[in-house]
Design goal:
Blueprint lengths: L11 H14 L12 E6 L5 H12 L3 E4 L13 H10 L2 E8 L4 H5 L7 E6 L5 H15 L6 E5 L6 H12 L3 E5 L16 H7 L2 E4 L15 H8 L3 H4 L7 E3 L22 H21 L7 H6 L1
Parallel strand pairs: 1-2, 1-3, 3-4, 5-6, 5-7, 7-8
Helix pairs in contact: 1-5, 1-10, 2-10, 5-6, 5-10
The structure holds phosphoric acid mono(formamide)ester.
Phosphoric acid mono(formamide)ester binds next to α2.
C-alpha cells in the first residue's frame, strides 16, 4: 500500500490482510525501534475517538507524535494544507494522518507528498479507518462477511462512514441495505433502501449513523423524539432484531435520537468495542504502510504478522 485513502479501491485480499494484522496486534508484544519515527496528526475538524486512538496506536508502535494544532499553526497565517503537509514531511514526519472538511483533499496532496497519507475522514467523502474498525468488530462476531446482511441506517447522505462501509462490505460479499428518511438518501450509492422496520428485522448487523448536523444546509426542524420514533432504534424495534444481531454506531452518539439511551450499552451493542478496535486497526494500517516502504516500526511485531 502507498497510502490509505479510501475503502473503494481496496481488494478483498488487502482488507482481510489488514484485519488479520489488526486482530493479531493486540496479542503481540511490541519492541520499539531505537530511533523513533515521527508521525503528524493533522485534524482540521473536531475528533475524540479517531485522533486519540491514532495517538495511542502511534505511541504503542513506539512512534513520536507531532501533535499539530490548527489553531496554533501557520494555517492561521494562510498557509495551505499542501504547504503544511510538505513542511511536516520536510522536518521528518514519516507518515501524515489527516482529517479535513473537504472531500478528496488527500487525493490532491498525493502528487507532491512522498510520505504515506492516512485519511482520518474527508468531508462527506470517506472514513476508511472507521470502516476498518467496524469490519474488525463484525469479523470478530461472525468470522465471515459473505452472506451477512448489514443495514446502514440514518443520515446516509452526509455520512463518510456509510460510504466507506458500503463499498467495503460489498467487496467482502456482505449484503448491504440502506435506510434513511427521503431527504437523507444518497442515490449515488448503488444499494437498495428499505424501511427502518424491515432493516432491523432482517439484518445481522444494524449500523446506525450519527445525524451530521454540521453538514446540513439548513437546521432540521424535526425534534429528537420524532426522529427516534420514525427512524431511530427504539426499545420496541430492538426487541424485533434477530437473536444474534448486533448494534454498531461510529459515535459520537446522539443518545435518545439515533438510538434509545438505554440501548447504547445493551448486550447487543458493540459501540465501545468498536472504539477499542480503533487502536488495533490503526496500528495495523500504520505498520503496514511503513513496512511496504521498507521501514519496520517494531521488529518482533513484523516477524509475527
Ligand atoms: N467516529 C469518529 O470518527 O469519531 P470522532 O469524530 O470522535 O473521531
Amino acid at each position: 500500500m502507498e497510502h490509505f485513502l479510501s475503502m473503494k479501491n481496496l481488494s478483498e485480499h488487502e482488507i482481510i490482510k489488514l484485519l488479520k494484522r489488526a486482530d493479531q496486534v493486540e496479542r503481540t508484544k511490541i519492541v520499539s525501534r531505537e530511533t523513533p519515527l515521527f508521525v503528524a496528526n493533522l485534524f482540521f475538524e473536531p475528533s475524540t475517538r479517531t485522533k486519540m486512538s491514532f495517538t495511542v496506536a502511534e505511541r504503542r508502535l513506539g512512534m513520536e507524535v507531532l501533535d499539530f494544532s490548527q489553531e496554533s499553526s501557520s494555517v492561521q497565517k494562510g498557509e495551505s494544507l499542501y504547504d503544511t503537509a510538505k513542511t511536516l514531511e520536510a522536518i521528518g514526519a514519516s507518515i501524515l494522518v489527516i482529517r479535513h472538511p473537504m472531500e478528496n483533499v488527500l487525493e490532491q496532496l498525493k502528487n507532491g507528498i512522498t510520505v504515506p497519507l492516512i485519511n482520518a475522514g474527508d468531508g462527506k467523502g470517506e472514513h476508511p479507518t472507521q470502516s476498518m474498525l467496524d469490519l474488525l468488530t463484525i469479523y470478530q462476531e461472525f468470522h465471515r462477511f459473505n452472506g451477512l446482511k448489514v443495514a446502514i441506517i440514518g443520515d446516509i447522505k452526509h455520512s463518510r462512514v456509510a460510504r466507506s462501509n458500503a463499498y467495503a462490505l460489498q467487496t467482502l460479499g456482505a449484503e448491504v441495505c440502506l435506510s434513511a428518511q427521503e431527504s437523507w438518501q444518497d442515490e449515488s450509492l448503488p444499494f437498495s433502501y428499505v424501511s427502518m422496520d424491515e432493516a432491523v428485522e432482517m439484518c445481522d448487523v444494524v449500523m446506525l449513523l450519527r445525524i451530521q448536523h454540521e453538514r446540513h444546509d439548513s437546521i432540521q426542524s424535526r425534534n429528537s423524539d420524532d426522529y427516534l420514533t420514525s427512524y431511530g432504534l427504539t426499545i420496541e424495534r430492538e426487541s424485533r432484531m434477530k437473536n444474534h444481531a448486533i448494534i454498531l454506531h461510529p459515535a459520537p452518539v446522539n443518545r435518545g435520537v439515533e438510538i434509545d439511551d438505554s440501548l447504547v450499552e445493551c448486550e447487543r451493542s458493540r459501540i465501545f468495542k468498536q472504539m477499542r478496535n480503533g487502536v488495533a486497526v490503526r496500528m495495523a494500517i500504520i505498520s503496514q504502510l511503513l513496512e511496504d516502504r521498507g521501514t519496520h516500526v517494531a521488529d518482533n511485531f513484523n516477524k509475527r504478522s
